[in-house]
Write a structure and sequence with these properties.
Layout lengths: L1 H18 L10 H35 L7 H15 L21 H13 L1 H8 L2 H13 L4 H15 L10 H7 L3 H11 L4 H14 L8 H15 L1
Helix pairs in contact: 2-3, 4-5, 4-6, 4-7, 6-8, 7-8, 7-9, 9-10
Length: 236
């Protein structure tokens, strides 16, 4: 047990060493976000350079040796590419825990960080690390995670942020999160958003609340479009 705890602590430290700087991306102070964006740009350049070197070594070794996957130069280039990816975004949040337990995974805070960055500062996220497929898969993953209180609180915050803004690509996936983190607190926040002066909040929050009361109704594009059409008709 002590050995396992030590392993978890070591892994958490490794994540912090690679991506701890990324929490600056969600800082309220613009200067802190700016510094984190500079760090991100440098990290992404290292990924690009390492990928180019890896591709070059792959082209060279596959023509010179029978099995490039045994060639030390190729393996070293691949390792450096993977290391660079682990220190950047969105690459650094790819991959999942081996045992499938996302709630206990030291990488979870960085997955939530990536989603919170997109939720709070969507323009910066889009300009510097746009990855709609990654956003979608991460939302689906956190919705399937064990809903411990800390995770549930963060997911509740994310749903509240998202329903208050204009719809963005893959935002509909947050219905999964709302269903997973359903609580009186979440419903209270959604209810206030649905009664607000913002037409976006009224539409989005109303839709999520409507689906929370209908757990068997699929969250399909057709259902969403039908809801939006009904809301528009009600305003005419």
């Amino acid at each position: 047990m002590a050995e396992e705890a030590g392993t978890d602590a070591d892994e958490a430290c490794a994540w912090a060493e690679r991506l701890g700087w990324a929490f600056g991306l969600i800082a309220e102070v613009p200067a802190a976000r700016g510094a984190a964006l500079v760090h991100l740009a440098e990290a992404q350049k290292k990924v690009t350079d390492a990928r180019a070197r890896f591709n070059e070594m792959w082209r060279v070794t596959r023509t010179l040796v029978a099995d490039e996957y045994r060639e030390p130069a190729f393996l070293q280039a691949r390792q450096r590419y993977q290391q660079a990816q682990g220190r950047s975004l969105p690459d650094g949040v790819w991959g999942r825990p081996v045992d499938g337990d996302l709630a206990a995974w030291p990488g979870l805070p960085y997955v939530l960080l990536f989603l919170e960055w997109e939720a709070r500062y969507p323009l910066e996220w889009t300009h510097h690390a746009k990855a709609w497929g990654t956003k979608q898969s991460l939302i689906q993953e956190v919705a399937r995670a064990r809903q411990e209180e800390v995770i549930k609180a963060k997911l509740t915050d994310l749903v509240e942020i998202v329903v208050h803004r204009a719809y963005r690509c893959k935002d509909r996936e947050y219905v999964r999160v709302a269903r997973a983190a359903d609580s009186a607190d979440l419903r209270g926040r959604l209810g206030r958003a649905a009664d607000s002066d913002s037409p976006w909040a009224r539409c989005h929050a109303g839709y999520v609340l409507w689906l929370l009361d209908r757990p068997d109704l699929p969250n399909t594009r057709h259902v969403w479009q039908t809801w939006v059409a009904g809301e528009a008709a009600a305003l005419m």
